[in-house]
Amino acid sequence: MQIYILLLLLLIGSGSIAAYLYYLKEKGDELDAIAKGICPYCSKKSIELYDIRGGGCGPRIVSYRCTLCDYDNSFSIDGSCNF
């Protein structure tokens, strides 16, 4: 019985890790499209930066939105200081 519980926990843990890695890949693909100025959903050059939070050393929260569709997303971008 204990081996089944262990297998279940391993299955749940590996599924959670796989889902998180997929989420990070999707966010990375969106950020690559935004860096080119293209909206990830409507594929038009209509993306604009509308908010930057944080400054100095450490991560910044950068928010983008599309002027044509309802796309709106925020990204945490490393802004660390390399001393």
Describe this structure in words.
With 83 residues, the chain is α+β, with helices and mostly antiparallel strands. It contains 1 helix and 3 strands. It has one domain (2-77). The mean pLDDT is 89.
Q: Termini distance?
A: 54 Å
Q: What does the main sheet amount to?
A: 3 strands, antiparallel
Fraction of helical residues: 40-55%
Can you count the beta strands?
A: 3
- Coarse structural class: alpha+beta
- What sort of overall outline do the alpha carbons produce when their principal axes are compared? flat
Mean pLDDT across all amino acids: 89
When the domains are counted, the total is 1
Order of helices and strands: HEEE
Low-confidence stretches: none
Q: How many whole angstroms does the radius of gyration measure?
A: 18 Å
Please give the count of helices.
Answer: 1
Assess the beta-strand content as a share of residues: 15-25%
Strand order of the largest sheet: 1-2-3
Keywords:
single chain; 83 residues; 1 helix; 3-stranded antiparallel beta sheet
In short:
This protein is of the alpha+beta class and 83 residues long.
Question: What is the fold's blueprint, element by element?
Answer:
Layout: H1 2-35, E1 47-53, E2 60-66, E3 72-77
Antiparallel strand pairs: 1-2, 2-3
